[in-house]
Amino acid sequence: MNAHSSEQDRSKQTAQLPDGRTIGYAEYGTEQGKPLFYFHGWPSSRIEFAGYKGDEIARRLNVHVIAVDRPGFGLSSYQPHHRFLDWPKDIACLADHLGLQRFAILGYSASSPYTLACAYALADRLTAVGVVSGLAQPLSAPGATKGMPTIMLWTTARIHPRLTWLMFNMMKGSIANAPRDQLPQSAKQAMMAEADFEFIKHHPYAMAANMDGGVEALRQGGLGPAEAAALYWKPWGFQLEDIQAKVHIWHGEDDLNAPFAAHGKILAERLPNVAPKFFPDEGHVSLIHKHLEAIILQLAS
Q1: Looking at domain 18-300, what is its CATH homologous superfamily?
Q2: Which phi and psi (to 5°) does residue 203 adopt?
Q3: CA-to-CA distance for 30 and 193, rounded, in angstroms?
Q4: In this structure, are residues 72 and 224 in contact, taking their beta carbons and an 8 Å threshold?
Q5: pLDDT tens for residues 111-126?
Q6: Most-buried pick from 45, 123, 267, 299 (CB within 10 A)?
Q7: Alpha helices of 37-185 — where are they, by DSSP H?
């Protein structure tokens, strides 16, 4: 791997894939540490991991974290007709580029289908698999979206991805210029679980991290994230029951973005080889911020 001249370089890495596309990634922690690929939420990007104070944690645990932009997000080239099962091929190519034969993977939130696709297709190369606050089934499944407060952008993508793309184009400027330290008056106004609202209220950097990751996701205009949103309504291309790799899951029981009953509980029930940890008083955002060190320690061990 090439030497890095600055911290800025570590957050803007790229590699070329065999089909000519570019894949973007950021590196955190120590390059000689145990390798772990991190997959971001939606719509977010590789810089999301830094917002959890992830670099500091990875350094402390001697872990080499590679946070990767999915196609059309951040620095990664747009890929027409992208599917969840295309992602393991990209990760295998990036791992080869970095000289990594075996590695762990950690997916947060909407990256869970991509993480589980890797668990399904790359089991022989994985040292550990983790899913935090993840989705367990297509959004079209009965009850899968019940109680989700931010479903509108997903729903418009189901109708047609370009509707969500137009919404992203309208929102990008306002999000980029919005104050990073101002919250609505209540969890309901913020469309958050109480646990998430209380955490962000006392830790404003978490709001900034979420917004900055979203702005970077739309670097290319948002078509990639919009088309990705439509994928979540369709069959994923594999069954949870067919995943042989052991999957560690962490899920807050107060999660509204990936409601526990429809997602965390389902993952625990349907994955054949699963190690679940449930948190009664955590939401979608609070869990990963509070427990990231323990999560990485588990996957790196």
Answers
A1: Alpha/Beta hydrolase fold, catalytic domain (3.40.50.1820)
A2: -135, 75
A3: 34
A4: yes
A5: 999 999 999 999 999 9
A6: 45
A7: 54-61, 87-97, 112-121, 152-159, 161-177
16-36 pLDDT per residue, tens: 999 999 999 999 999 999 999
Location of structure tokens 């950690």: 106
Sign of CA dihedral 160, 166, 167, 169: positive
| Maximum distance among all Cα pairs of the chain, rounded to whole angstroms | 51
Closest CA to 41 of 114, 147, 129: 114
Handedness of CA 145, 84, 206, 278 (dihedral sign): positive
Amino acid at site 292 = L
User: For residue 127, which amino acid is it?
Assistant: T
Percent of the chain with pLDDT over 90: 73
- Interval 273-284: pLDDT, tens: 999 999 999 999
Cα separations in angstroms, 17 against 71, 93, 125, 181: 11, 7, 19, 39
DSSP state letter for 240 = G
Q: Is the peptide bond before 161 cis (omega within 30 degrees of 0)?
A: no
Query: Is the per-residue pLDDT at 87 higher than 60?
Result: yes
Do 256 and 149 meet the contact criterion of CB atoms below 8 Å apart? Answer: yes
| Rounded Cα gap, residues 272 and 91, in angstroms | 23
End-to-end CA distance of the chain, in Å? 24
Q: Where in the chain are the domains?
A: 18-300
Give the integer Cα–Cα distance in Å for 134 and 278.
12
- The β-bridge partners of 24 are 14
Contact 268, 142 (CB under 8 A): no
Coil, strand or helix at 127:
strand
Q: Compute φ and ψ for 299, nearest 5 degrees.
A: -75, -30
Residue 202: phi and psi, rounded to 5, are: -95, -5
Q: Tokens 């890797």 identify what position?
A: 118
Per-residue pLDDT tens digits for 237-246:
999 999 999 9
Query: What is the gyration radius of the CA atoms in the chain, in angstroms?
Result: 18
